């Protein structure tokens, strides 16, 4: 495929590395005169990491080109991945310009972490093919991509975006509402807030807090998100037993943390339990726990080697 | 060392596995008549995991004994690790009984996640040697132990607890205030709250939320906690640049998430920056980032194999 990356900064270059490593032709649009040398320097830094992940990447190869003229840069693109400045007026003008010069079937994706597709596409004639594909940095290493359609994005464009990212070995998830911070950054913000509060109150040092997260929650969540972990945290009774044991304590803890409680009503719990069973019910708790424990040991081994270098 | 584990449930058995694997003699005190067979069955399940971590564990060996009589169970103990029911009256009576029959230098540790050492030790004559050593489950696999002294715990006991857990390959951190949920469970609670809110608002499914956490935040935090990650998230400028770029957005996001903001005042930021520099300033941002990227790749490789089995 022909993929045009708009913006040759760190995120654009990381995307470009990933696209090239998966055999796409990449054209980078950036008006900075030194963009080619900056991008190639960064690609050379990334190259050995991609190799370790089993992908070759040639920073000097014919698959990579640069084009300072926007109409020419997007003319042949099957996919455009925008990584420009986080300014609404810039993005609105950009997309109107892009759609005037790209193929009618081109898929238009923005890496924005904060400006929604509904806002970005306001001046477009064909907003149905424009949506957000927000990576967690750096995109060449971290699997998550948050796919966030706008109000006027078509389901077909959502499907194509999901397939495009999955084809790159990413783990795309689709958000059904355009909410500030999307999913990962909101969860991260909740965590940073409590971390700052704990250090500021003198409960723990910065370094000990980092150790706590690395050597418990990080390890746990790398093998399963909060709902899967709760399902296993309930023992043989799964997520239902988890709520029975911990729902009250959790809500009390939220109060103590001065967090407005999210009420775990019977209805909320039932809805969560149903989704957990649908997602993970195919395996028994014992099977899921055994997979988790195996992964945890593999992670502990993996972390050992580089940690020794520190 | 002679380590007495009080309570032969899942946590007590997991601790026992870890103690045995590190060459300690373990006596389990539990009044249930079938405790020995239950514990040995669970130890056989744990055995192959410990082997993978490089430790042998013999569920039938002479290092493990059972004693239903408390005075006899603690008489020779160098360390007592309590894993009994989470009831204040039980624990207060227990410690008074333990200290009447154990050696004067025995170190007394409670696995409690919620009842503080200050409360537990209220009926003790020598509360200076009693404190909380709270594991993140299961203790034989997860490195974190939260060491939480009570108001009357001596610094010497804190030091001995830290050394004892470090000697087991754990990563102990010391809390300087007895706060509900300690550190890891508070951070986890903040995260679960936002996760439940996002699913309940229809932003994302349970399964996609789990994928989001696993394939971004989990992976990231397994290689570095929130402050180290912020330090690297700021690019060449480190934690200072992170605050310049993100402090305002973070505080706005907290408001949108209906979280009472923890104000990132100049003074708060300066204190955090100073601690981050003290903890991580020995290496450049480039060096730290390179270690993180290497670890991330190692983790991705480690997760690949077992995930394929699913």
Structure summary:
Chain A has 310 residues and is of the alpha/beta class. In chain A, 54% of the residues lie in helices and 12% in strands.
Account of the protein in words:
The structure is a homodimer of 310-residue chains. Chain A is α/β, with parallel strands linked by helices. Chain A folds into two domains: 2-174, NAD(P)-binding Rossmann-like Domain (Rossmann fold, 3-Layer(aba) Sandwich); 184-309, no CATH class. The first copy, chain A, has twelve helices and eight strands. Chain A has an eight-stranded mixed sheet with strand order 3-2-1-4-5-6-7-8. In chain A, strand 5, helix 5 (117-120) and strand 6 form a beta-alpha-beta unit. In chain A, helix 9 (226-233) packs across helix 10. The longest helix of chain A is centred in the last third of the chain and has 25 residues, at 285-309. Mean pLDDT of chain A is 94; it is low at 306-310. The interface between A and B is large, with 108 and 109 residues.
